[in-house]
Amino acid sequence: MQAAKDIGIYISSVVDKYSDMVYRAAYHALCDRHYAEDITQEVFLKLMQTLPDFESDEHEKAWLLRVTLNMCKSYNRKVYSHPTEELDETLADQKPVGSGPVTEAVMSLPDKYRNVVYLHYFEGYKLNEIGEMLGINQNTVASLLMRARKKLKEILGEEFDDENN
Amino acid sequence: MKTTEYKIEVSSLKLRESFKEELKQKMLAEAEKTLSEPEEHKPSIVKSYSKYIALAACLLIAISAVGFMPLGGKIESKSADNASAENDTVQNAADANGFDDGEILNSIINDEIEAPAEGAEDYADMEAEAVEEVESVEEAFDTPVESGEEETEKLLSAEPTESEQEDEIVAETNPASGNGFSPEGSRDYDGNYNGADYVYVGGEGSAAYSAALVKNDLTGAEISFGTVTAQTLESEPVDIQVGITESETESTEAEIPSAYGDGDAVYFDDDSEEFVPEAVDAPEPADAEEILEAEQIFDYNSLNYEYSMEYYDVRDGVIADLDKIGLIKFEILEAYDTEDAVAMYIGRDIDIDTDTRTLYSVNVNYDYFESEEVGVERALINVGTAQVQLVGRPLMEGEYVAVVYENSDGILEPVPQLLYAVHKVRGVDIAYHVYCPDGFMVDPGSTNMGLVPEEYEVVTSTDNNPEIYTQKAAVSELTHYLRRNILRMEPTLIDFSKKSVPKTSANVNYPTGMLASENDKINGVAVGDSLDDSLAALYLSDYSFAPDCVLTLNASDEQGGWYVVVTVKDGVIVSIEPHIESDDILAVE
Question: Hey, what CATH class is A1-86 in?
Answer without folding.
Answer: mainly alpha
